Amino acid sequence: MDFSYDIADKLKLPQWKVKNAIELLEDGKTIPFIARYRKEKTGELDEIQIREISDLLEHLKKLHERKQEIIRIVEERGKLTPELKNAFLGAKTLQELEDLYAPYKSKKKTRADLAREKGLVPLAELLKTGYTRNEEVISTYIDMEKGVNSIEDAISGAKDIIAEEISINLLIRDKLREVVRKSGKFYSERGKAEDPKGIYRDYYEFSQPISQLVPHRILALFRGEREKVLKLGVEVSGDLLPVVLRVLNFDRKLAYYEELVEAAEDSLKRLLFPSIEREIRNELKEMAENRAITVFSKNLRNLLLQTPLGSKVVMGIDPGYRTGCKIAVIGKDGSMQYYDTIYPTPPKNEFMQAEMKVVEAVKLLKVEIIAIGNGTASRETELFVAETIRKNKLNCKYLIVSEAGASIYSASRVAIEEFPDLDVTTRGAISIARRVQDPLAEYVKIPPESIGVGMYQHDVNKTKLKKALDREV
Fold first, then answer.
1. Angle of helix 273-304 versus helix 215-226 axis, rounded to 10
2. Considering the entire predicted model, what is its pTM?
3. Is 179 within 8 Å of 255 (Cβ atoms)?
4. For residues 396 and 364, what is the distance between their CA atoms, to the nearest angstrom?
5. Contact 190, 204 (CB under 8 A)
6. Count of CB atoms within 10 A of residue 155's CB?
7. Which of 391, 394, 395 is nearest to 351 (CA)?
8. Where does 4-90 sit in CATH, by number?
9. Which fold has domain 314-437?
10. What is the pLDDT of residues 6-22, one digit of tens each?
């Protein structure tokens, strides 16, 4: 199937460029290769544009495959109508598709299914087209054995069929989605779980227009819901029924106009709005995750592309309190020269002993830079190092280095094989020192998702994050 037209329209790119890029991607060529060596085929598309094409292509393929699978399953269950098939085929996102499929997912019958089994489809058509009320005709649908015991039962069943038909009307869904996105609000309220630290205090009675929500707030709200501290929802101040009725455009002269309006109202409350609400929630979450992953990827790229200081003798310090600060000195070639533990921080505060060890190591091994990890006790360690350099007039400088992923590396097989006789914290100090000499060479030893490239990293889809970060590496 040719997805190039849809992708070109979405990304506002010439279709021939997109088509050629897709052919190269499907031929197994990597994004950097295409951007660098196939410019003439793609019309100078850059790496970002090709990545967007690749992502959209993957999404559209999954969407197409899922549509075909759902149509097959619903058809096998004998529930596929032409209208439902068109609704499935017209779904623009996986979430919209899954929402349409939800009532047919289980073998449990919907209210409309039960009404159809009772033979009420012709009556539903009569309600939609009849200009004369005729209880005598409706009474012919009464069937005690099928559970249709009265005219009211028959009309109720016919309304269930109409309500379901309305719920899969693509134009109605599009209009409702548009209205809810523009004028709807996303709200949160207290859930059942306790919040002893008051982390979510600002969200106990929170409401904000959907269009104004920012990614970090969305992720925080969903985390609160996941922890059962918050309950989330979508609300619209105005009445949405007129939106539905405008699209349906029922003739007011129809004999059963009031029943049709009741069916539309039932469809809106029971089927349509809950479905649209799920879509909006998932859209918000996906948008926030994608934005966060973009930021994380950029952070990782900046981390990997830091300017290396090259062949310098570096002392790495992994700060700590109770267990002390681990120090390690590496030579110009990155080899480990010396390691020890000092206690210049609370609770021991052995400032003098720590100072003596650092001064001796700096002078003996000609240390040029002291790299201090930015984790626990970093500030106190920095003050100690600055004072030690000043007081002893040491010919070296210090800097603060990200500890991101150091603990992961220090316990990894690579680190154990390289330094089998050292404990994990000392290996961490070596990693901190090496990051000054050659950041890229050191960071690539750590799984990208373990580097810790953003404060909301653990709130996003792990698979998507790993894929995005692997691309950067």
1. 110
2. 0.71
3. no
4. 13
5. yes
6. 23
7. 391
8. 1.10.10.650
9. Nucleotidyltransferase; domain 5 (3.30.420)
10. 999 999 999 999 999 99
Structural contact between residues 373 and 401, judged by C-beta atoms closer than 8 angstroms: yes
20, amino acid identity: N
Query: 154-171, pLDDT tens digit by residue?
Result: 999 999 999 999 998 989
Distance (Å, rounded) from C-alpha 288 to C-alpha 117?
Answer: 44
* Residue 191 main-chain phi, psi, to 5 deg: -100, -165
Type of residue numbered 358: V
Dihedral angle sign, alpha carbons of residues 29, 32, 37, 43? positive
Multiple choice CATH, 168-297, 3.50.50.60, 3.40.50.300, 1.10.3500.10, 3.10.50.40: 1.10.3500.10
| Domain ranges in the chain with CATH number 1.10.10.650 | 4-90
Block residue for tokens 């290396």: 308
Q: List the single range of 90-104, 170-184, 253-267, 388-402 with lowest mean pLDDT.
A: 90-104
Amino acid identity, residue 320?
G
With cut-offs at 50, 70 and 90, classify the pLDDT of residue 254.
very high
Per the DSSP assignment, residues forming a β-bridge with 356 are none
Classify the C-alpha dihedral 256-257-263-265 as positive or negative.
negative
d(CA 70, CA 63): 10
Query: Is-contact 425 323, C-beta < 8 A?
Result: yes
pLDDT on residue 309: 87
